[in-house]
Design goal:
Belongs to the ABC transporter superfamily. ABCF family. Translational throttle EttA subfamily. The protein contains 25 helices and 21 strands. The strands form 5 sheets. A 6-stranded mixed beta sheet has the order 5-6-7-3-8-9, sandwiched between helices. Strands 14-17-18-12-19-20 form a 6-stranded mixed beta sheet, covered by helices on one side. α7 runs antiparallel to α8. It is 40% helix and 19% strand. The chain has 3 domains: 115 residues, no CATH class; 179 residues, P-loop containing nucleotide triphosphate hydrolases (Rossmann fold, 3-Layer(aba) Sandwich); 196 residues, P-loop containing nucleotide triphosphate hydrolases (Rossmann fold). The protein is α/β, with parallel strands linked by helices and 642 residues long. The termini are far apart. β15 and β16 form a beta hairpin.
């Protein structure tokens, strides 16, 4: 009964909150009913005196785990105390990179409090995914202790989840099986009450009947099917009868995430949960996790997500775990202070951190003004590029070389229509991309974003209307399927540099190994096979390979997926300095707020809206035009045959 009640509480959570975003307009609403008030667990109320910050103490963590693990008198009593107080305990945790002597985790000692919301950050290859796999029990090849609280229910979302079942419905149904069992038993007893029975049996049956009714009422299980539908709508899941074998990797992740959230867990371990979600689905997930009573340990590159959800930031660096109390902006402040203490305040990393801190604290109006200033600087960027050789050679971070000057026409669409089978994907789409613009492409998965990109790159054509690419345009594309564009048997150095000792970036010549280093592909990593790289490392490898060709029109499809925050900041700066035009498909709201001069939004019913401004400004405009919106799965305009 206890488990069923707990599951009922989770279903109520999925079914019953109103979105009040901090970085999106308050009038943007989501499927909602009543939401019960909840207390978020924090250290203070539970354990009195706040623990000191850094190296493993405080907030969602406790350094007592470290002391207990290092003491020779560590006993069963100490283990019992840790298990009773903490949701998860790590002691002297060590993990080597497969087929290598490099320690990705080297003596990590942490303990996680119940109810803590923890965002995990660190450079690609720092051990973030390894940590979650160990905590989930998937990876058992490690030294030390990784122990959940006895009896704790642990849920894990892998980057590439494996789904059990032939259809979407078969994957979702087990998540609510216990709740359905309650309803089935209630219906069975309802029938039984019409049958003849003794007074004693009738009393026992009525007691059970009332007990089940209380459970159904408490968890709003009368609306179980609608609850499941709302969660699947919010995450834009495929139809229930869709075959798993036909789903893309992104669709499988959304199904796995929906199933995970519909279950009852004490601890959620989420590895890049926002990948393959559109921006509005990410916002829904934010609010769900913010209101979730259990513990959350989440790896994500989404900085608004870290700002809104995280109570603590766990930074993995050089094999160690460093917890920081507060959200993303608090962590930026602490890291800037640490670099100051370490006399690194003049380093490129410190300056970039300070710029980001200033940006995140700026007003929405100031953010919008910066995106508009980019358009005004286009001519200035063109003039500066030829004379920046020394600056480029010494920059030490991503640099995108400029291509030839763009003409007046980059890409124009006039009344474009495109159908796929019996679905009208694009209806009467018109826009004109200005030279110097950075255009963010947003919208639900399946709405037609990829189809539009394929038409721009010449891989597909409109059914009607005109789509013109300017004669001066020299495209560079970076797709979402990284391994399809890379040779896994090559080393990272071979793949990026293609046998050359120097890389020609427009009019500037750069040492090939130094160029790889700009993208975080340094020293030993350059000699690693591409197939052995992490997702983020492969992404950086593909970026480095693609942009060196000096195009003047970039097309990036989800470029921030799997990248660490430092690399994303470097990519942002390089795009803002790029003397050309870019079309960027992304769900990363922070990224789009920072770089976009325009938004090309797929708004449902086959409609596409072109807007001048960044993502936040677009959302404000959308509410003015359309009013409040409710999350639902993608719909299309009816296909009318002439």
């Amino acid at each position: 009964m206890k488990i069923v009640l707990a599951i009922s509480a989770v279903l109520t959570l999925v079914n019953s909150f109103t979105l009040q975003p901090r970085h999106l307009p308050k009038s943007l609403s989501y499927p909602s009913v009543k939401f019960p008030k909840q207390q978020v667990s924090v250290v203070g109320p539970h354990y009195g005196k706040k623990k000191k910050q850094g190296g493993g103490g405080g907030g969602g963590y406790d350094k007592r785990a470290q002391k207990a693990s290092s003491s020779s008198s560590s006993s069963t009593a100490q283990t019992d105390r840790l298990d009773s107080e903490f949701m998860f305990t790590l002691q002297k945790l060590k993990k080597k990179v497969p087929n290598s002597e490099r320690m990705v985790l080297n003596g990590v000692d942490l303990a996680f409090y119940p109810g803590a919301k923890i965002g995990v950050v660190g450079s690609n290859g720092s051990g973030k995914s390894s940590l979650l796999k160990i905590m989930a029990g998937v990876d058992k090849d490690f030294d030390g202790v990784a122990r959940p609280k006895p009896g704790a229910r642990v849920g894990y979302l892998a980057q590439e989840p494996v789904l059990e079942g032939k259809t979407v419905k078969e994957c979702i149904d087990p998540a609510v099986a216990s709740s359905r069992a309650v309803i089935d038993e209630y219906n069975d007893i309802s029938v039984k009450l019409g049958e003849s029975m003794s007074d004693e049996e009738m009393e026992q049956t009525m007691d059970r009947f009332n007990e089940l009714q209380d459970q159904i009422d408490a968890g709003d299980l009368w609306e179980l099917d609608r609850t499941v539908e709302r969660a699947m709508d919010a995450l834009r899941c495929p139809p229930e009868d869709a075959l798993i074998e036909n789903l893309s990797g992104g669709e499988k992740r959304r199904v796995a995430l929906a199933a995970l959230l519909l279950q009852n867990h004490d601890l959620l371990l989420l590895d890049e949960p926002t990948n393959h979600l559109d921006a509005e689905s990410v916002q829904w997930l934010e609010v769900f996790l913010e209101q979730f009573k259990g513990t959350v340990v989440c790896i994500t590159h989404d900085r608004y997500f870290l700002e809104n959800v995280a109570q603590w930031i766990l930074e993995l660096d050089k094999g160690q775990g460093f917890p920081h109390e507060g959200n993303y902006s608090r962590w930026l402040e602490e890291k800037a202070k640490r670099l100051e203490r370490e006399k690194q305040s003049e380093s490129a990393s410190a300056k970039t951190l300070q710029q980001e801190l200033e940006w995140i604290k700026s007003t929405p109006k100031a953010k919008g003004n910066k995106s508009k200033a980019r358009l005004n600087r286009y001519e200035e960027l063109l003039l500066q590029s030829p004379g920046r050789s020394d600056e480029v050679r010494n920059r030490g971070e991503i640099y995108i070389p400029p291509g030839p000057r763009l003409g007046d026409v980059v890409v124009t669409a006039d009344g474009v229509n495109k159908a796929f089978g019996d679905k009208m994907l694009l209806k009467d789409v018109s826009f004109d991309l200005p030279p110097g613009s950075i255009v963010g492409v947003v919208g639900p998965n399946g709405a037609g974003k990829t189809t539009l990109v394929r038409m721009i790159t010449g891989q597909d054509t409109p059914d009607s209307g005109t789509l013109k690419v300017g004669d001066s345009v020299n495209m560079v594309t970076v797709g979402q399927e990284r391994m399809d564009e890379l040779n896994g048997d090559n080393t990272a150095y071979e793949e990026i540099c293609e046998g050359r000792d120097d890389i020609e970036l427009g009019q500037i010549s750069i040492n090939a190994r130094a160029y790889c280093g700009w993208f975080g592909i340094k020293s030993g990593l350059q000699q690693s096979k591409v197939k052995d790289l992490s997702g983020g490392e492969r992404n950086r490898c593909l970026l480095a390979k693609a942009v060196k060709s000096a195009g003047n029109f970039l097309i990036f499809d989800e470029p921030t997926n799997d990248l660490d925050s430092e690399t994303i900041r470097s990519l942002e700066n390089s795009l803002l300095d790029f003397a050309g035009c870019a079309l960027v498909v992304s769900h990363d709201r922070y990224f789009l707020d920072k770089i976009a001069t325009h938004i090309l939004a797929f708004e449902g019913e086959s409609k596409v809206h072109f807007f001048q401004g960044n993502y936040g400004e677009y959302l404000d405009d959308k509410v003015k035009r359309l009013g409040e919106t409710v999350l639902k799965r993608v719909t299309y305009a009816k296909l009318v045959n002439a």
